[in-house]
Design a protein that fits this description.
The chain is built from seven helices and seven strands. The relative contact order is 0.14. With about 210 residues, it is of the alpha+beta class. It is about 30% helix and about 25% strand. It has a four-stranded antiparallel beta sheet with strand order 1-2-3-4. Strands 5-6-7 form a three-stranded antiparallel beta sheet. Among the domains are: about 35 residues, no CATH class; about 80 residues, Ribosomal Protein S5, domain 2, CATH 3.30.230. The chain is flat, with a radius of gyration of 19 Å.
């Protein structure tokens, strides 16, 4: 995590965050501004939690001999609508984890949540607002709105990502080689990204319990 006092921003966006001109990360997302400094994420989302989901040994042949690296997959999130997924590679596990955490922060997204299940009328943002799918490689994951109290009816990798995103209830349907952690994780993350791409009127979003403010 970047120390705020020692952080010296190099981009215009970073300087505005450091100066307190931008205090809400939603303002950055709404304008579609690229985040190129970790200090921006650490300042605006200081409560991010990290979860290492997979550590894998990767070998490849090089003209100088066999090269061995660790590939790590990490998810970060504040359990309240923001989540990121990243990968890191290094000859040692520690540096690989740090690279993956930084990559996940750069990939942070805002997750649209709501109360989209027809049998639930709580009006809280506890599930996905509508059915959505994501695909990576052979793995396809479909997330379906669920009533409050159901929990996360999805595999462990999906549970980690959805929990960090602040989603408490969901039905799911998966296909493909789901035991491939990297593809499964990316498919779930891709589904969450698709939530923000679906266009709907404010009236429809309010009906699904999605905050439009």
């Amino acid at each position: 995590m970047v120390d705020f006092d020692e952080w010296e921003p190099k981009t215009e966006l970073g300087k505005k965050v450091k100066a307190g001109e931008i205090t809400d990360i939603d303002e950055i997302f709404e304008k579609g501004l690229p985040i190129m400094e970790l200090g921006i994420i650490d300042t605006l989302l200081p409560d991010l939690e990290e979860e290492v989901m997979d550590v894998n040994l990767v070998q490849r042949m090089h003209k100088s001999g066999r090269k061995v690296n660790f590939r790590v997959i990490v998810a970060v999130g504040n359990k309240n609508g923001y989540v990121g997924l990243g990968q890191g590679k290094s000859r040692e596990v520690g540096p690989a984890i740090r690279k993956a955490v930084d990559d996940a922060k750069y990939n942070i997204i805002k997750v649209r949540r709501g109360c989209g299940d027809w049998g639930c009328v709580c009006g809280k943002e506890h599930t996905v607002p509508f059915k959505v799918s994501g695909k990576t490689g052979s793995v396809k994951v479909t997330l379906i709105p669920a009533p409050a109290g159901l929990g996360l009816a999805v595999g462990n990798v999906g549970k980690t990502i959805l929990s960090l995103a602040g989603i408490a209830d969901v039905w799911s349907n998966t296909s493909g080689q789901t035991q491939t952690t990297v593809n499964y994780a990316n498919a779930v993350f891709d589904a969450l990204k698709e939530l923000s791409k679906v266009k709907a009127s404010d009236k429809a979003l309010k009906k699904m319990g999605v905050c439009t403010i």
